[in-house]
Protein 1
Amino acid sequence: MDPYRLPHSVLPVRYGLRLEPDLARATFTGEVRIAVEVREPVSEIVLNAAELRISEASIQNAKGVSHPANVELEVSTERARLRFPGSLAPGTWELRVAFTGILNDKLRGFYRSTYKDARGVTQTLAATQFEATDARRAFPCWDEPIFKAVFSTTLAIDPALTAVSNTAVLSEEIRDGRKLIRFADTIRMSTYLVAFVVGNLEATDPVMVGRTPLRVWSVPGKRHLAAFAQQAAAFSLRFFEQYYGLPYPGDKLDLLAIPDFASGAMENLGAITFRENALLVDEKAATHGELERVADVVAHENAHMWFGDLVTMSWWNGLWLNEAFATFMEMLAVDAWKPEWQRWITFGVSRAAALAVDGLHSTRPIEYPVRAPRDADAMFDVLTYEKGASVLRMLEQHLGPEVFRDGVRQYLRRHAHGNADTGDLWTALGQAAKQSVPALMDGWIFHPGYPLITARLDRNRLVLRQERFTSLKEPPGGAATDGPARTSEATPPLRQWRMPVQLRIVAKGKPVTRRLLFTDAEQTITVPKGFEHVVVNAGGHGFYRVRYEPALRERLLRLIPDGLPAIERFNLLNDAWATTVAGLMRLPEYLDLTARFRSDPDRNVWSVLFDSFQALNRIIDPAGRPGLEALVRDRLSAAVSRLGWTPRPDESELTRQLRGDLLRAFGTTGNDPRTQARAAELYANSVKSPSRGTDGREANQREANMIDPNVVSAVIAILAHAGDRVRYTEFLERFRSAPTPQEERRYLYALAGFQDGALVEETLSRTINGEIRTQDSPFVVAALLTSVHGREQAWNFVKTHWDTLDRLFPKNGVRRMLHGIAGLATPELEQDVKQFIAMRKIHLGGKTLEQYLEQLHIAVAFRTREGPALRAYLKRAGAPAGRRLKNKQGVRHEER
Ligand SMILES: [Zn+2]
C-alpha cells in the first residue's frame, strides 16, 4: 500500500471548520466537524495531519451513537490514524476533531506574513497556501485532490482585523471578545483550494462582472495600486465565462496581495492570493514587462476557477491539466485584452524555455508519476506549465480554435464539480474534433522530449527528417540521481513523433501553406517550380526545433527582418542557438548569424541574442571578456542609436520595452561606458526632481524629468553593474523605501548586480539576515550564482550556509536557488557542485536536481568545445572595436 495515499473506505462530504488564529503568539486553535460517508465497516479512519496537535477526536452518527477515537500521528507520512473501540457501520457519520497548530514562517499551510505599516511598525497577518499538500498543516483533512467536499468555514479573530475566505460572508458578530465571521458554503472542491487570510486588510470597491463582485485586497496604504489588476481581472473573468460557456463557479471573487508569498499566485476559489508584485502595480511607473506579468498572472488564476477548481485533476501526476491549461488560457485572455501586446509572439520565449529543459536527457514526460509530497511540489515546473501550454497551442491550431473550444466546453460540463484525467480531456476533444486525439497527443504528454526536424533540399524535393533533439549526445555520466529509481522510466523517449507540421513554401513570389501530419522518420515533399524558400513550423506554434541546411537557411536570412514574421525570426535564431549549444552548428557560424539581426525590431528576437551573449559571458575567460563586450556593442549599437533614450509619442509599448532591454544589455553585457555615464546623468536628474510636487510648477518639472519606466529599469541595472559602494548604499535605501512592489524588485535585483566582492558578500548576507524576504532570497542567490562576478562567492556562501538556507527558505526556495548552479560553468566548479550535492544528500523531488546538473554539464561541455573558437573569433572580429575599450570602465573591468 502506498503510504502517501489515503484509503477510500471513508469519504469526507462536508467540513464545518472553525479556526481561531492568535497572530501575536503565532498559533491557532481549531475544531473541524466532518460529515463523512463510511462505505464499509471500519474500525479506524486515516486522514492527513501535519504539525498539528490533536487534543480530542470522536465520531457520532445520526442516532447519537458516539465513539471516542484514539489518535496516532504518523510524522513521516503526515497522517493521523483515528482508532475506534468498535467497528463503524456503513452510513453517514460526523467526525469531530479539536486541534492546535502553529502559524509558521515557511509560507505554507496557515502561516504568518509581516510588513511595516505607514509608521514603520511591523504588523502581522495570517494567510494560507495549501497547494500541493499543506492544507493538512491547518486542519486534519483528506488532503488529496480527489476527495472533494463542501467547506463551511468560521473564523474567530481579533475584532480589529478583517478576514477573507473562499466565499461571501454570511454573518459577523462579536462574541466573547472575538469577531466571529461565518462564510457561505463552498462548492464541492479539493482541500488545496481552501483559503483564509486574516489581518488589517483594505479592499477596492467591487466591480460587478455579471453577478460576481470582484475586489482587490492589500495591506493598508496600497489600494491605489490595485486598479490595473482589477481591470485585468474583470476582463478575463468575462472572457472565460464566454469561452468556457459556463458561469464563474463562485459567489464572489477576491484577489489578495500577500506581503510574503512563496509562489506567484494561488487559485483558491473566490480568494486568489498573490505575491504583491504580481497584483499591485502603478500603471504609469511600470515597465511593459511588469504590467504584462500582472495581467498574465491575474488571467492565469482566473482561468483556474474552471480549470482546476471546478474540474480538478484526480492526482498530481495530472497537474498539467490544471497548469498547462491555465497558462494557455492566460495567453488567450491577455491576447484578447491587449492585442497590441502580441502575447502569442512573446509566448515564444516561454516555449523556448520549455524546449531547453525538454532537450535534456533528464527531462520527464508532462504527465509523470508522483508519490511523495516532494514529488508533487517538483511538478510545478516549466514542463508542466510551458511545455504543456505549448502542446495545447499546437493542438488548438491543428484542430482549429472553435473545435478546440467546443471540446474544452464539453470536458468542463461533463466533469464539473468532479475530477478528471488526461483521457477524459482527449475524449471530449476527440468528440468535438471527430478524430482520435490520443494517437496524436500521447507522444507529447506521456513521453519525454521532442523532435528536431532537419530540412534539406534535394533538387526539387524538400526532405524533412525527424529525430529526438538533445543538447548532449549522451546522458552526462556520473550525475547524481535525484531520489530512488523511478518506475516512470517505463515511458522511454520516442524516436518518432506524430507531429502536426505547417510549412510555408514560397515559389515565384507566391506563398502556399501546407499542413501535414509528420509521422515517419523522413518525409519528402515536391516543391513547385520557381521555389524560393520554405519555412518549417510556419506560424511558430509547433513544439519542435528546425535545423535548415545552410543553403535553405541563407534563403530565410535574406528575408529578415521584414520578410519573415517575428515569431518565425525568433524560432530561426533560437533554434540556431540551441543547435550551436548542442554541437550541431559551430559557434563562429552562430556568431556570424547574430550580425544579421542588427536591425530587428522585435524584443523577443533580441532576447535570444541577449541570452546567448550572457551564456558566452559565463564560459569565456576573464581575459577574453573585453572582446566579448566589444562584440555585444557591435551587434547592438545600430539598434541602440536608432531608438535612443526617449520614446516617440506614437511608439508602441513593445518598442518602449525593446529600448529598455537594449540599453540594459548595452550598458551591462556590453559594458559601454558612454551608456553608463548617460544612465548616471539621467538617474541624478530623476532623483533631484521632487517626488511629491505640491504646486503646479513642480509637477510640470517632474513630468519633464520623467523617464520612460522601461528606461528607468534599465538605468538601475546599468548603474549597479558599474556601481561602487556609494551607489550600493543609495540603492539599498531605495529598495527599503520603494513605493511599489515593482520598484522594490528592481532595486533588489540591482543589489545582485554590483560587481565588487565586498558588496556581493553584503548582498548574500542580506538573504539570510531578515532584510530580504525569504520569498525573494532564493532568486537573489540564484541571480548571483549565474552572474560572472558573483558566482564563486555565491557558491561558497551556499555551501557555508546550507543548513540556514534550508531552514529559512520556503519549501520551493532551495529548488529555486539551486536553479542558479547551471551558471557555475567551469569544470572545477562543476566537480565541486557534484561533490557537495552528494555529500549533503540533497533531493529536490522529481528530476529537478538531475536537470540542473545536466544544464551545468552542458555549459561546461560547451566551454570545452567552443572556448578556443570563441577566443579566436573575438580576436579576429574585435581588433578595431577593442580600441574603444581604452577607457576607465573597460580597463577596470578587464583587470578583474
Ligand atoms: Zn496555475
Protein 2
Amino acid sequence: MVTGLFSHSACFAHDTGEGHPECPERLRAVLARLEAEEFLYLDRREAPRATAEQITRVHPGDFVDRVLRSIPTNGLRYVDGDTVVSPGSGEAALRAAGAVCAAVDAVMQGDLRNAFCAIRPPGHHAEPDQAMGFCLFNNVAIGAQHARAQWGLRRVAVIDFDVHHGNGTQAAFAAEPDLFYASTHQYPLYPGTGAAHEKGVAENIVNLPLRAFAGSAEFRSAVEKVLLPKLEGFAPELILISAGFDGHISDPLAQMQLLDQDYYWVTEQLLKVAEKTARGRVVSALEGGYDLNALASAVAAHVRALMLA
Ligand SMILES: [Zn+2]
C-alpha cells in the first residue's frame, strides 16, 4: 500500500491578493517539490468537493451559506482583517475539505496506507461559526467527523504542529470526549488561545505552548513527554495531522526554530502511535508555512516519512 497525495487545481484559484502570505505560490512550491523522483510512487488523486452533509457535521448550515454567499463575483472581499476571499475561494474551500474526506475514505478502505492533502485554504483557525486566520472551513475537523459518521469510528485524534494554535479545531472538539486535539504552538501568538489549562471536557484537548525561539529540543521534548503518551492513552482509531510548517526556522510569520528533520521525526512518532492503535491510519492536511523554500523542503520531509511507514 502506498501514500496518497490529494490536491486540486481549484486550490490555486483562491486568490488572497498581492503580498498576502497565504498565496497560491505556496501550493505550487509544495507540488513542484513533490515531483522529485523520490516521490514518484505517491498515488496522486484529485480532490472531490466536500458535500453539504460533510461540512455541516462541523459548521452550521447558515454559516456555510454565509461563507459561500460572501464569495465575490470579481475582486477580493475581506472576511476578517487577514482572511480574504476571491471568486475562486468557494470552490477551493470545498475541494480542500473534500480532499480530507476522500483521503479518510481511501485510508479506511485500505486502498491507501496514509495520505497527504496539499490544499488551501487551510482550516485549523475556522471555528464552527467563524471563518478567520486565512481559514474558511475546518478541513481536519470535517475529516474527523466524516470518519465517525461514514466509517463508524468512535475515537479520532487531530495532532496539530502548525506554529499557531488551532482554535477552530479545539472549539469543534472541546465538548466531545471521543475527539482528541493536541497542539504544539508558539505562545503567545495569533490567535491567542492554546494555553496549557485549556483541556476540554475530558482532558481531550492537550495544549503544548512553546516559547518564541523554541527549537528542536523543546519541541521534541514536549512531543515525547506529553503529546505522545496522551495520544496513546486516548487510543485513536484514526490520526489526522494539521500539518503546518510555519514553525520552521526560516518562516517569516513566527519565531520558532524547527528544522526539516523535526518534521520527519514528529511524523515518524505519530505513525508509530497509529501503528499501535489505529492500524497505521494517518491522514495529513496542509495548514500554514510561509517561506516557500522551507515549506517545500519541510513538506518533503513529512511526506518522505509517510511513505516510509
Ligand atoms: Zn500557522
